[in-house]
Write a structure and sequence with these properties.
heterodimer; A: 17 strands; about 10% helix; elongated; B: alpha+beta; Alpha-Beta Plaits; 15-stranded mixed β-sheet; 6 helices
Chain lengths: ~270, ~300
Amino acid sequence: MTLKLKLHTKPEVPLEADCICPDRMQSLNMTEIGDLVTYHGNRQVPLKNFFECSGEFDGEIDIEGDLVNVKHIGSTMSFGKITVSGNVGVHIGAAMSGGEIIVEGDASDWVGPEMYGGRITIKGNAGHMVGSGYRGSTVGMQGGEIIVHGNVKNETGHVMRRGLIVVAGNSGDFTGVNMLAGTIIVLGEMGIRTGAGMRRGSIICQTKSELLPTFTRSCDYLPLFLRHYFKHLESLGLIISDSLINSPFERWCGDSIELNRGEILLYAGK
Amino acid sequence: MKIKSTTIVDTFAEAFNMYVSRVIITADSKEWAIAAAQSITGFATSVIGCKCEAGIETIIDPNDSPDLRPGVSVLIFAMDAESLGKRLIERIGQCVMTCPTTACYNGLAGGSPVIVGGKLRYFGDGHQISKVIDGLKLWRIPVMDGEFLVDDRFNIQEAVGGGNLLILGKDQKVTLKAASAATKAMGKLTDIILPFPNGVVRSGSKVGSKYKKMIASTNDAYCPTLRGVVEKSELDDGINSVLEIVVDGLTLKAVENAMRVGLMAAIKPGIKKISAGNYGGGLGQHHIHLLKLGF
């Protein structure tokens, strides 16, 4: 039976709830789960002050309510599944290494920062810094997948090193800024300064985009490896058009102010 | 036992434990996929002289292929896992990577992985790129027509090799026709290959030789020209041609089934006997008795 958490009191200031995590909740009874410590602003409060707990933990946690002000859900999780029926606050899935988080609504900034593994699916939009490194960190996301069905804001995949970020809508500015490796796929449009400072890695976009002058056009070709990504995305419920699968892409290499080993692939079909 | 006018000899095929890998080759067209498959399975009739045995298993429809392009499935067998890993690197590197538009994927779900793409990647001279997609690592190696895509690892599993049928006919023409009918029927099966040219071998061998350096030599007991010369010929009067079909398969059951299908298809007028080759039973781990094949 799934553990159900229902928000009964909306936090007035951000509530840090990194205790909402399968790793922290396994082997606890309902009383112990209710007593788990959260931070409401700078005050320690038990989880039960904000959430009604029911059911039984079997590896899955369902959360209900408007969680815009609830931070760090699923931080450092390594297994299990969290489903959020609504919107969610910042730092969801921070540094997670396994398991799955599904958000039915929108997510705020910092989705999956510095994550190592697992999958985060946002059915709505997400904010800035999806899959990024924290300010001052030299390495961001190091594995796993972040799938956003809607749009994202700026600096998606900042200093990302491994893993996959997919944006079914549009992405903001500085997509893949200072990227070290990994893959970002944007099925909508990208903002400006895509891939600025990237060393390695792939940024793939379904639409044309104006790139920085430090990127050089290599060729038009049919990147076969994309079919594997597209097949994978279809298995995750995203709709990929046949034209995208069968069309050539422009390959741009850069950023020449860095290693020049990164690539931006822009759809070149009609 | 006799079926129609053909005698099924009460004997057994002596088969061996081997190791196998399934290699999926795709290309822009079926023709190029087959070209690469023919190349990778070339000079791979017998482990005795070729270090491995290989053949085309089946043609793959684009809808069933890993990258939605026409494909060919190839099985490669060797006597040990380490040797098979080496053969995969050599053959994929020289025969598939070189063929225009191709990509190459592991086709076995089970077994133990060996690194193949992860070694071929060095051909990229530092420009190679790896991608992990849904948990599987692929290498993108830049080549002159774009990129060669290859799985990092290929699985190797235990298998059975050396299942065989000996078709003994009244003349070469009739025997070849029966052998062709058998290989045609067996060619429709999956999980097996027939490693010899068109699935048929005429130079069956026995263990050892009068020459010290030879580990195998002609199977004189089945050579029609040596009847009356060798001490013990297996050929009766009226048998003037013998052809062999060798079967390697993923499992003993697959080999047995292929032998049954082949045997039934080879029963034709003029085929006097169908037998099987063995070495007295002391070498191979599997004894496949013809009369227990279930026809």
